[in-house]
């Protein structure tokens, strides 16, 4: 009996993703990293080429045994799946995207980084900032040599700059007590759901967000925000003054963020968060962050440079979740925004906001393709990303630590859900719970470090 296998195994290094199609015995083996969907898109062309090779092998093999009248429905299905999953990435496979960055821009970016690092060094001299300055100086020399020799690998240089940039961001002015407040950084375990409740309006409201005010020492307030009009917009937030009221869906107050759901201050998408009695969210139809302070009933807005919106870079993993381009999160003393830009090849960018000024203080660029994850949340300056396992299980598989600029690709923290789709995940530093909007169900989990 012949067996037809597509073997997916993991070969991951920071630098390379290897995919080979190989004929072995009577099956064609493709080694495909399960984290292939997290590959830096800069390598997309290479990956695609290797997948094609694999595909060619499969087709050749297919033709060979076709004569013997054996059916290979499974393999064909797998092939189809591979092709289908690559489809969304195809638009990135254009030269334009890679060529937009010229040497001049590299120099400019480098200069900016250098100045920031130098300021940090002046304010707070350390070995880290000193080393960084040296490396930046070397990088500048290398770019100068690129000019001279006219031979260079732009992608390699960009990747190097990204790492340097992340380190510069980290050594900027993060409050000094930040690390100590988050002594043990990486979470190790997520409980079974400790809260499971349908949203207070209707099961048909499958997208939105919910949680508890994320500011330390804030009043214990629970909030619920359901999106209307094609699960895209919202203009009210339902507030509860106690857990009991929340669980009983009573004594709530609907606060108006905007006068209608198509007002320019209305909410777009499910990335909303509440911090300091203030709602932070993507503003209606634009790449801007809005904040609405419920206490003072005042709105602010700020442009998010280069952020993809309107389902350009939504969360996908299993199937794309519309209107999830911009995800707001909060931890002990900052609000964070998670999005993706073309400049970073559709990979996740994390910015730290000053919640009062509503301006960006730091920006890190990750290697994680935004369309390859279901959702993200922030704990103690660490970004976590999840992926779909099945209808009733989700898994944290990736973390990015903004205080070290390091990515952790090896996490496996499974947790349960009651339905397949996740519109929002957010972590609350006050009760250390993770809040999930799960196809209209509101779930919460305890987390452990
Ligand atoms: C190929 O077949 C041999 C003999 O049946 C077996 O020992 C070996 O494990 C097979 N290799 C693979 C990759 O399946
Ligand atoms: C997670 O942590 C809780 C509390 O410490 C413990 O009871 C549970 O067994 C842990 N689960 C796993 C899978 O480690
Ligand atoms: C909201 O307004 C209150 C009252 O003025 C103020 O104390 C609080 O800091 C404000 N919060 C934000 C995030 O703007
Ligand atoms: C944020 O805004 C405040 C007030 O306008 C300003 O003092 C501060 O320098 C800004 N920070 C950044 C990083 O732009």
Automatic annotation (TrEMBL):
<protein>
    <submittedName>
        <fullName>Si:ch211-194m7.8</fullName>
    </submittedName>
</protein>
<dbReference type="InterPro" id="IPR003112">
    <property type="entry name" value="Olfac-like_dom"/>
</dbReference>
<dbReference type="GO" id="GO:0005615">
    <property type="term" value="C:extracellular space"/>
</dbReference>
<dbReference type="Pfam" id="PF02191">
    <property type="entry name" value="OLF"/>
</dbReference>
<keyword id="KW-0732">Signal</keyword>
<dbReference type="InterPro" id="IPR050605">
    <property type="entry name" value="Olfactomedin-like_domain"/>
</dbReference>
<feature type="signal peptide">
    <location>
        <begin position="1"/>
        <end position="16"/>
    </location>
</feature>
<dbReference type="GO" id="GO:0007165">
    <property type="term" value="P:signal transduction"/>
</dbReference>
<keyword id="KW-0964">Secreted</keyword>
<keyword id="KW-0175">Coiled coil</keyword>
<feature type="coiled-coil region">
    <location>
        <begin position="103"/>
        <end position="146"/>
    </location>
</feature>
